[in-house]
Design goal:
It is a single chain. The chain is an alpha+beta fold. It has one domain: Jelly Rolls (Sandwich), CATH 2.60.120.10. The protein is built from 4 helices and 11 strands. A hairpin with a 4-residue loop joins strand 4 and strand 5. The N and C termini lie close together (10 Å). The N terminus is likely disordered.
Length: 200
Amino acid sequence: MIYVGLFYHLLLVMIQGKYNHIIFTRGSSEKMVVQTEFTENEKNELLDSNTELNKLINWLDEINSRPSLKVVEEKLLNLRINSTELSKFFNYTDDGYHRNVIKKTDNYELVLICWKAGQKTPIHDHRGSDCAFLILEGVSTETIFEISDGELKEKTERRYYPGEVCAADEPDIHRISNNEDGNLVNLHLYSPPLKKYNTY
């Protein structure tokens, strides 16, 4: 039997002058993820230093609608981003992976997600949102699950390397892990923004 539910809640705290959302599982003090939203000045500095990222955001704003997952995947594959130039914007935490929100609108959410060695997401889906992400640094391991005869079972596992893109439809059930010794950084694009999800 599997337990499925929307069982996260948020704690708003101030860290280094920024508001951070720390997400916990219900009934647990275990931190799953810290979320930081870039200030306007930080966002401008980030986009000024990376033309490709700026072009992606301009395109997303211009279409003013939800792009298809295939189109998003192609856009991310064509990005030429130097992760070294962006490294000052990478934030990590010891207790869980770190979501660094670049921009969020009604149609999309663009996030730099950073993992230290051994960190991983819970097993989850994307209720109502497509997701594609470009690996900028490190190796990203995606484990895909399926529900068979009422049980959650591991189906496949794949490793993604810098420059590769992983794309997940709304109903896909997966977990993203950093199983390597170094850090992992992915550029995630959710369409529309990820508002809720099931964990398994």
